[in-house]
Amino acid sequence: ILSSIVPVAAAAAADPRPASRPSVRRGHGLVYHPGRKAILLFGGGVALPEPRMSDLWALKNNTWTRIDTHGPAPRTLCGFAYDSARDRVVVFGGLGGNNNKYGDTWE
After folding, report:
1. What phi, psi does 12 have (nearest 5°)?
2. pTM above 0.85, yes or no
3. The pLDDT value given to residue 102
4. Which member of 52, 55, 63, 80 lies 3.0 to 4.6 Å from 45 by CB, making a disulfide possible if both were Cys?
5. Alpha-carbon distance 76 to 10, whole Å?
6. Is 57 within 8 Å of 37 (Cβ atoms)?
7. pLDDT of 49
């Protein structure tokens, strides 16, 4: 079993992750969108309380693609859901800068 362990330097050199991908984060929203056949990632933050993000990414066939949007302000801990009746992704609320609580809804 231990023969399958790879040294850290070798693992870093053989990193299969693509160069274009979302940064490491927490407090983000994640949802599956059946129409796009993709997982969508929205917002989050690197280290709370700041900075927060408002970027939107799609993961399809192991490839990340950033989706340009003019959506909500940067936030963490928002509601993020797929509405199958209307084929829409919905963002609700969350925490903005200085822990301001949002109560807005975006589609």
Report:
1. -65, -40
2. no
3. 95
4. 52
5. 34
6. no
7. 63
